[in-house]
Structures are given as C-alpha cells and as structure tokens.
Amino acid sequence: MRRAIKVKGYELVNVLGIETSCDDTAAAVITDGTIIKSNVVASQSDMHKKYGGIIPEIASREHFTALIPVVNEALEQASMTYKNIDAIAVTNGPGLAGSLLIGVNSAKGLSMSWEKPLIGINHLEGHIYSAWLEDLEPDHKAGFPIVCLIASGGHTDLVLMTDHLEYQLIGRTRDDAAGEAFDKAARVLGLGFPGGPEIQKMSEEAKEEILPLPRPEIKESLDFSFSGLKTALVRRAESEGFYPILESNGPSHYQTTEYSFAFQEAVVDCLIRNTKKAVLENNARAVILGGGVAANSRLRKRMNEIMDVPVFTPRPGLCTDNGAMIGAAAFFNLQNGLPSELDMDAVPNLRIGLT
Ligand code: KG4
Ligand code: ZN
After folding, report:
1. What's the domain count of the chain?
2. What CATH number is given to the structural domain containing 233?
3. How far is the centre of ligand 1, averaged over its atoms, from the C-alpha of 154 (Å)?
4. Ligand 1 mean position, distance from CA 293 (Å)
C-alpha cells in the first residue's frame, strides 16, 4: 500500500525530476513518488574517460546541450506533455557548481514558461528515495528507523532516517568517498573510468582473497576512511613493479584481477562493518543502500547475507545518478505543500542530516 497522503488538489501527482549534479544528464517522470513513467539518462562517461576522471568544464557544457533533449525524451517516453506535469523537481546540491547551475537554471526556466511549481531536492535525499521506486516501500515493509548507506563518487554517508524527510548524519567518510576510492584504485590497476564497474568486472575472475588489503577503521565511530586503503594498494603495486604504469610495465592480468578483488573486498567489508554497527546502535528496522557504489553486486550480495534486518536496494540502474530518484524524493517533500522556489540557488556543498 502506498502512502495515502496526496498533494492538495491532485489525484495522481506527476513530477518531472531533473538531475545534473555530476556527469549524468538525467530526467524522469514519476507518478506518486513510486511509479516510473520514464527515466532517461545521458551519460557523459565516454567524454570523461580519456581524462581518467570528470572534468567540470566539460560536464557543464555537456549538460547544457543535453538537458532539454533529455527532458523532451522523458516526456515522450511517458506519453505526456508538459500539461500533465504537476511539479518540476531539480537537484540543487551537492555536486559540481557549474553542473548544478545548468539544472537549476533550466528548471527555473521550465517552471516559469510552463507555470508549474518548482522544488529543489538534495541529491543525497534522492539516493535515499530511490528505495521507494518500483514498490520497494521500506516504510511499509519494515518501518522506521532505517539506516541509509549512501555510497557514491562524492559521498559515503550513514544517515539515520527516523521518519519521512527526517535525517541524522551518523557517519561519513573522513577522506575519500567509496566510489572515489574505486575510481583511484582502477587507475592504479590500469582500468578505465568509472572505476567501480571495471573493478567489479575484473573481480569476477578471482576466486578468493589471495592478496588481502587492510580494512581501515576509526575506533568508537561510524566514520569511514578509504585513503589508507588506496595508499596500501599503491605501495603493493610499486613493490611489485607495476606502478606507476609506464609503457613497458603495467599489471599482469592476474595482478589486475587479484587486486581488484582484494580492493573490492576491503571496501565492502568496511561499508558492511559500519552499517551493521549503525543498525545495532540505533535499533534500526531496515537498511537502505543508495548511490553508485550500491550498484556493486558483491556489496549487495554480502550486505543481504550479513544483515539481520531487511536490506532495500534499488536495482543498479537506479543506484547510479538518475532523475527518477529526484522525482521520488520530490513527491514526499511535496506532501508539505506546493512550493515555488524561483529564488533557489545551487548549493555545491549541501549536506544531509546535520542539525
Ligand atoms: O551516485 P553516482 O552515480 O554519482 C555520484 O553522485 O557521485 O556514483 C558514481 C560512483 C563512481 O565513483 C563509480 O565508480 C561508482 O559510483 N560505481 C560503482 C559501481 N557502479 C558505479 N562502484 C562499485 N561497483 C559498481 N558496480
Ligand atoms: Zn549520486
């Protein structure tokens, strides 16, 4: 059963969700916060691949050209026109300043010309609400409080969700985000960008952890630290002579697969260890996994095996950045009334759950 509250005056609420915080230009039409009518993502990763990471100037330029065609495609796939849209939601932070601005300013323009309300959504809240898409419904199936692990390229946060829209930040990374760590490790191993999926793929060829790496832990805290793990990989790679990668060296296939597996296993262990601790400390009734790293098949499998409470994980395509999660989060925010946020700003360092 879906949450019974409706935004005043509407039977079904269709939200256009727009997401441009990083390197994906995305738009989706979401009905009642859970039903995906369309979900279009134009990835820029091919553009950034040759630089081994995201170039902010290229990202905003690409958003600028891709956004309106992506919005049109989302409407078309939903078999709707702008007249069927009840509200426009856009990520207003955190993220790259230039990328966010393209989304926010375009959404403002659409809001004015279509005469539709506009709402700004925290990207991290979007990753949490991706767990409400496609009838996962953690609130009805398990109830609050819920521990949310948001692991992406820019963040690794543990957020205690005590009710809809009520958050406390209970853990965060002190240095690199988990996704950033995957991306850096992939570079050391001579793999492409983004690193997470590449490392996952190579890991599948390794059977067990022959070359274990450390699991950095911050005592008495739910915080994470991944920079030491990356350094440990660099030291091993240097001592085995395959890093820095020059023309004549580079890791063997065996080294790539074994170290991919070892690195993935260490990151997954750290994420699971702190999430489990957070569940116990807060008597949580469920776990939500969100963010690009939550697409990792090993993390998904092991989290499910180890947790004593249900784990709600959107399918991989909804863990990485998308507009559907922004539309879902907007629906629940819209329960508080229809806003008009034409003075909204992009906030690159927006946080979640801080009082
Ligand atoms: O949430 P997201 O799409 O964008 C940000 O908000 O940052 O996350 C992107 C990050 C990248 O660092 C990427 O390497 C990582 O998520 N990622 C993965 C996987 N798919 C994407 N990491 C591990 N395993 C994956 N399958
Ligand atoms: Zn994200």
Report:
1. 2
2. 3.30.420.40
3. 9
4. 4
